Amino acid sequence: MRFTDFLAEGCIRSDLRVTDKAGVLHELAGMLAARTRAPREQLEEQLASRERISSTAIGEGVAIPHCRFERLRQTIACIAVDREGVDFGARDGKPVRLFVTLASPTNAPGTHLGVLARVAALLRDGRLRQALMEAPDAATIRTLLVRAEDAYLSAQARHDASSHAGSP
User: Fold this and answer.
1) Helix axes 138-164, 109-122, angle to 10 degrees
2) How far apart are CA 121 and CA 128, in angstroms?
3) pLDDT greater than 80 at residue 163
4) β-pairing, 76-86 with 96-104?
5) Phi/psi at 65 (5° precision)
6) Over the chain, what is the mean pLDDT?
7) How confident is the model at residue 159 (pLDDT cuts 50, 70, 90)?
8) I need a labelling partner for 15 at 20 to 30 A (CA). Which of 78, 97, 152, 167 fits?
9) How far is Cα 125 from Cα 130, in angstroms, rounded to an integer?
10) 76, 10 contact by CB (below 8 A)
11) 101 touches 31 (CB < 8 A)
12) pLDDT tens, 63-116?
């Protein structure tokens, strides 16, 4: 399973301009709705409901708003970059500039958690985060993520092969 398989170039914005968390969630829900034909208002409420539980801002300028939604047929990811940053309740107090959003069908909790874990693993790389935040357009963002995921999967395969090399 690849995170980038769930990310269409049409679901990437490099020019988000909002001033608060509600505005971010509204825009992200609109991106998801345009791609899935699910009702924007309901997606927005699901994202907001998840944020009320605990902020999805993970620090270092990144948030991963996500929800599960029964009317979806497949998992979808969207990405938005706000050059100025938005107060999203991050524990480190930094404004969030990079939003990676995920919506999955309610009957696919394994896929949902797997994609969230992959996104978090990829975004541990500070150079990748910075490159994404500075990328000029959607195509560049998608290319950066595909390359990063390719490298991540290659490293995982090498690790798996070396840990099994001495096994009988």
Assistant:
1) 100
2) 11
3) no
4) antiparallel
5) -60, 135
6) 93
7) confident
8) 152
9) 9
10) no
11) yes
12) 999 999 998 999 999 999 999 999 999 999 999 999 999 999 999 999 999 999
The active-site residue out of 66, 112, 159, 164 is: 66
Is 146's pLDDT higher than 80? yes
In the 3-class helix/strand/coil scheme, how is the chain assigned residue by residue?
CCHHHHEEEEEEEEEECCCCHHHHHHHHHHHHHHHHCCCHHHHHHHHHHHHHHCCCEEECCEECCEEECCCCCCCEEEEEEEEEEECCCCCCCCCEEEEEEEEECCCCHHHHHHHHHHHHHHCCCHHHHHHHHHCCCHHHHHHHHHHHHHHHHHHHHHHHHHHHCCCC
159 is catalytic: no
Q: Tokens in use for 16?
A: 């988000």
Q: Which two tokens stand for residue 34?
A: 């345009």
